[in-house]
Amino acid sequence: MGLPKAVAVLGSTGSVGRSALDVIARFPGRFRVAALCAGKNAKMLGDQARRFRPAVICLSEERAAARLGRLPAGTRVVFGEQGMTEAVCAKATDTVLAAASGVSSVRPVIAAARLGKRIALANKELLVMAGRFLVEAARAGGARILPVDSEHSAVFQAIEGHRREDVLRIILTASGGPFRNRTLRQMREATVAEALGHPTWRMGTKISVDSATLMNKGLEVIEATWLFGLPPSKIDVTIHPQSVVHSMVEYRDGSLIAQLGIPDMRIPIGYALSYPERLPLELPRFKPHRMDGWTFETPDRRRFPALSMAYAAAEAGRTAPAALNAGNEVAVDAFLSGRIRFTDIAKVVESVMAGWRGGRRNVTLSDVFRADGEAREAAMRRISFIRRP
Ligand SMILES: NC(=O)c1ccc[n+]([C@@H]2O[C@H](COP(=O)([O-])OP(=O)(O)OC[C@H]3O[C@@H](n4cnc5c(N)ncnc54)[C@H](OP(=O)(O)O)[C@@H]3O)[C@@H](O)[C@H]2O)c1
Fold it and tell me: How many CA atoms lie within 13 A of 44 on its CB side?
């Protein structure tokens, strides 16, 4: 088995990060924690540092450091994007588990890929915003990008070893979220608590709201274009409320290969960390006879316009996906803080994208970050005109 792999966990205090630490803790002979990075939750980060004793921990802001508490003797504290870059690029780091929310880790993860580190990628915003740059960096550095998103992990498992020209399409499954059967009028009155009530998965707040608007699936379509080198026209979405089939790949001979399992993020996290081996996770076993049946439905793009907006951004390319992502982040934040209604989220993103010009053909990473800033401002302007619910 060799030495344990040294993992830098970005977003260690979040839903995916905590599940990753659970997997790492179960297999001390295989993994050790090289670095932990979080946003502002210094209290939890300090607790994690005492338990896992990493060489480096990183917080987004220096102000929060006072709440870290007493740290193990060998643990250094660094801050912000530069600190995160240092943590992931350290010689000792083998694998980067990218699960910080938002776009804070874009440059650090690209730098780690350029150095050939394994990237276990949960953060879909990163690929949506800067997919080309991450894929190019990984190619240049000989790094592998292993998907952590359950749908992309499923596609990865169903597509590996097959010829790309034999693939007809990828079918991403979506639970449909908590408002699958709600009318538009009911969705207009939806509360934050209702939007966070995902039927099958327990996740962070932002991704839970994205699952309720179906923007999450739209972002996953863009993510899949980069991970599997396929155009958006070869990626379909189907609503599968039972969340048993995590996604499938259809081949030109009519075969469909799907990956199934219980909804537990430790499965795709473990696979991304240990690939090509599979970890004996000893989770509750899947019991097919306990299920009433599996259903598949076409998504309703009228009630969930985010999906069409994401396809349009994927087709437009250049800076459009970054603008979509940024406008959505601002809108979701406004909904979570009670400034707009649930149905306003799509309206805000729509207004950002309506006037969006894609930028020059060969966009640079700086262009993408500029687009991110401009789209955020446009979204905030639009929100300022919306009457509070
Ligand atoms: N949850 C899932 O099941 C799931 C599935 C597939 C993909 N994903 C993707 O994985 C990512 C994380 O999702 P999540 O549900 O785990 O989110 P979450 O529970 O909200 O956690 C977000 C994590 O990111 C950290 N963070 C926020 N801002 C940061 C910054 N500026 N610098 C460094 N760290 C920062 C947070 O730190 P603090 O706690 O200190 O704020 C926290 O550790 C997202 O991109 C999401 O789309 C999640």
Answer: 14
Rounded distance between C-alpha atoms, residue 180 and residue 178, angstroms:
6
Q: Which two tokens stand for residue 206?
A: 């932002």
| Other beta carbons less than 10 A from residue 2's beta carbon | 6
Residue 275 one-letter amino acid: Y
Residue type, 177: G
Question: Is the peptide bond prior to 276 cis by the omega test (within 30 degrees of 0)?
Answer: yes
Phi, psi at residue 55, to the nearest 5°? -75, -35
Contacts of 337 (CB under 8 A, 6+ apart): none
User: How do residues 193-219 score in pLDDT, each as one tens digit?
Assistant: 999 987 777 789 999 999 999 999 999
* In contact, 117 and 95? CB cutoff 8 Å: yes
Q: For the chain, which residues make up each domain, given as ranges?
A: 5-147
Distance 206 CA to ligand 1 centre (A): 8
**Is the CB–ligand 1 distance for residue 71 below 6 Å?**
no
Q: Give the Cα separation of 269 and 97 in Å (integer).
A: 9
Q: Are 124 and 219 in contact (CB under 8 A)?
A: yes
Half-sphere exposure of 341 (CA within 13 A, CB side): 15
* Second-level CATH architecture of 5-147: 3-Layer(aba) Sandwich (3.40)
Predicted TM-score (pTM) of the model is 0.96
Contact of 55 with 38, CB cutoff 8 Å: no
Ligand 1 centroid–CA 257 distance in Å is 30
CB-CB contact of 325 with 284 (8 Å): no
Summarised one tens digit per residue, pLDDT across range 125-165 is: 999 999 999 999 999 999 999 999 999 999 999 999 999 99
Handedness of CA 138, 84, 367, 357 (dihedral sign): positive
Of 63, 101, 145, best ligand 1 pocket probe by most atoms within 8 Å of the beta carbon:
101
DSSP, res 2: -
